[in-house]
Amino acid sequence: MFVYRRPSAIFSRQFSLISCRNPATRTMPHPFIREENQSPDYDPKKYYPARVGETISRRYRILSKLGWDANSTVWLSKDVTRWAWQSNRYVTLKITNCGKEEQRSARGEAEISGYISEMKSSHQGRAYIRLIKETFTIHGPQGEHLCLVYEPLREPLWLLGKHLGSNGVPPAVLKPFLKSILQGLDFLHSECHIIHTDLKSDNFLIGFEHPSVLDDYARQQESDPAPCKDDSGRPVFQSRPDFGYLRKGVGLVQISDFSAAVSGGVSVSHNHDIQPQPFCAPEVLLKSKWTYSADIWNLGAVLWELLADDTLFDGLDPQSNKYSREVHMAQMIRLLGPPPPQLLQRADQDVHNQLFSNQGEFKFPHLIPSEEFNFPNLTPFLDGEDKTLFLRFVERMLRWEPGERATARELYDDPWLDFRA
Fold first, then answer.
1. Which helix (H) or strand (E) holds 137?
2. 91 φ, ψ to 5°?
3. What are the CA-CA distances from residue 416 to residues 101, 228, 319 (Å)?
4. Using CB atoms within 10 A of its CB, is residue 60 exposed (0-12), middle (13-18) or buried (19+)?
5. pTM (two decimals)
6. Is the dihedral of CA 155, 156, 157, 158 positive or negative?
7. What is the three-class DSSP state of 378?
8. Which of 180, 161, 163 is nearest to 171 (CA)?
9. CA 314 to CA 351: how far, in whole Å?
10. Distance between CA atoms of 40 and 70, rounded to whole angstroms?
11. Of the candidates 13, 23, 14, 25, which has an alpha carbon nearest to the alpha carbon of residue 235?
């Protein structure tokens, strides 16, 4: 949904600070702040000028900024309409930009969330889907902003590894979460007929282990609010998504961010670009038709990020160090062998001609990695029977032909998920 700053992504830049709230924000001499104003497409006129301490829609008082993306900012807020004898209620408030495209995307997410909410289903996977609780519109200097309200969640699943002192989530910890994710995907695919299209580690969020974590965090933010910088008359706050150490256990994992989700009905056909580049399914790269199984490939590829904070297919050209569709396809060919002719026949003609000859031969054989680029070598974070079962598990997901991939329901009972090393 929004940007969490991994340590490697942070860079230093000095900003002068201004008072961004009443009472005045405590200033710091040379803070390192990298927020939405550093995006190449940043337009301050589109973002709502939210301020810590501001009450939105006479109900939600902003406590801190949790993150941002190209189309919105996200804030932890407190419901001020609660009676004195009631426990505190906090929400995650996503304030979308006022541009037409941003509003269209947000309304699309709200429609999908509303559709899922209204479904009468006893499917266990429903518990693992993050839904919008409320929507409303506020007015900014340049137009209307749609606000989406969610129950707050702690952090993305990949951060569990950092809490546990490892570069990835340990397999024994990850496996139960994966089973929950597969249940959620099966619910989306089999009952909701929805394709998520954007499965990445930032979109698997875990809940709070205890309400006191939120209460303590809120008190800390109120006593020591985040610094901010004036940017063309708009306050840009430093994000504070860290809720501290894990006290005991964790909450449920939920699949989040349905801003790019689409219907997967029988009569619906898709071939537009989807998915983060490293996780693109072959049919997406080839601009062929895709369906639910694109999510399965996506999940299989993201396992390397979850388990080892690494990437299976980076698609990086060694010369330019930039993403290349040709390199991405070459990496797939090394791991899976040549793509089947029937898949190439369904590809977009221009993309096919760019990558393959009329006889189906890959035009860039020099880009195919050496034989050392293989699944066992790319999985050094596992060993023994655990590794063997894992590779069989991902082999059911990472297949050229979309129809040959296992479904989420079939993967739920895979032996690797129940194996304890």
1. strand 134-140
2. -135, 160
3. 42, 47, 38
4. buried
5. 0.90
6. negative
7. coil
8. 161
9. 19
10. 9
11. 25
**Could you report how far apart the first and last alpha carbons of the chain are, in Å?**
34
Beta strands in 180-332 (DSSP E): 194-195, 204-206, 228-231, 234-237, 253-255, 262-263
Q: Taking a C-beta distance cutoff of 8 angstroms, is the pair 191, 123 a contact?
A: yes
Catalytic choice (198, 202, 309, 386): 198
Q: What pLDDT, in 10s, does the model give residues 138-193? A: 999 999 999 999 999 999 999 888 888 888 999 999 999 999 999 999 999 999 99
Whole-number Å distance between alpha carbons of 97 and 155: 23
Task: Kindly report the backbone phi and psi dihedral angles of residue 267, in degrees, each rounded to the nearest multiple of 5, phi listed first.
Answer: -90, 5
238, HSE (Cβ side, Cα atoms, 13 Å): 25
Q: What angle do CA 118, 119, 120 make, to 5 degrees?
A: 115
Q: What is the CA radius of gyration of the chain?
A: 23
Do residues 172 and 156 lie in contact, with contact meaning Cβ atoms separated by under 8 Å? no
Residue 33: what pLDDT?
A: 63
Question: What six digits make up the tokens of 340?
Answer: 């089947």
Residue 265 CB neighbour total at 10 angstroms: 11
* 198 is annotated as an active-site residue: yes
Query: How far is it, in rounded angstroms, from Cα 282 to Cα 289?
Result: 10
Helix (H/G/I), strand (E/B), else coil: 228: strand
Q: What is the pLDDT of residue 417?
A: 98
Amino acid in position 113: S
How crowded is residue 361: how many other Cβ atoms within 10 Å of its Cβ? 10
Is 356 a residue whose pLDDT tops 80? yes
| Confidence grade of residue 30 (pLDDT, cut at 50, 70, 90) | very low
DSSP 99: S
Task: Read off φ and ψ for residue 136, nearest 5 degrees.
Answer: -160, 170
Report the pLDDT averaged over residues 121-136.
Answer: 96
In whole angstroms, how far apart are CA 307 and each of 255, 337, 413? 17, 25, 19
**Dihedral-angle region of residue 277 (phi above 0 means left; psi in -120 to 50 means alpha; beta otherwise):** alpha
- pLDDT band, very low/low/confident/very high, at 20 (cuts 50, 70, 90): low
3-state secondary structure of 214: helix
Please say whether the beta carbons of 313 and 328 come within 8 A. Answer: yes
143 three-state secondary structure = strand
